[in-house]
UniProtKB/TrEMBL annotation:
The keyword Transferase applies. CDD domains: NAT_SF. The lineage of its organism: Bacteria, Pseudomonadati, Bacteroidota, Chitinophagia, Chitinophagales. One of its GO terms (molecular function) is acyltransferase activity, transferring groups other than amino-acyl groups. Residues 2-153 form the N-acetyltransferase domain. Keywords: Transferase. It comes from the Bacteria. This is GNAT family N-acetyltransferase.
Amino acid sequence: MLAIRNLLPPLIIPGHVAELYEQAFPAEERRNLTAQQTLLNTGALRLGLLENSEQFAGFVFYWQLTDFVFIEHFAVSPGQRGAGIGSAVMQVLEATHKKLVLEVELPHTIDAQRRIRFYEGLGFKAYAFNYLQPPYQAGGAPLPMLLMQKGMPPEEHTFTKISNEIYLEVYGC
């Protein structure tokens, strides 16, 4: 049975989460572990451990913002993939948080196209406006991404409000 166990501060990122985080996301698409740890312990960033039959199945790092949840990083363990865990996790999140937002790479690779299809299959829709993910590392370049939502209006003013809040609260810019 799938469960999401939310860890509360003070906490140390478990080793298996840190390892999967670094494997699943390239350096330019994630914070270093020290910065991630600091945000978790201020209570701004939240960590949900994914457990399938009491076995580690992955994680979700997310932010509860003004009126939506921003899913910043979400990964399923390689050995647990293909079992419907990703879909089940998103359904659990949607049941408790009606408005969800996330970033996904532009559809320039097979993997990015697969991720977009996965989220679209769950009812997410991409905003039709340009979005840049601010750099996680000093001196890094912003990354063009798609901002996808579920339960939010598709209009440009909503996109602008959401992206501005993400820039301020998540990226500090």
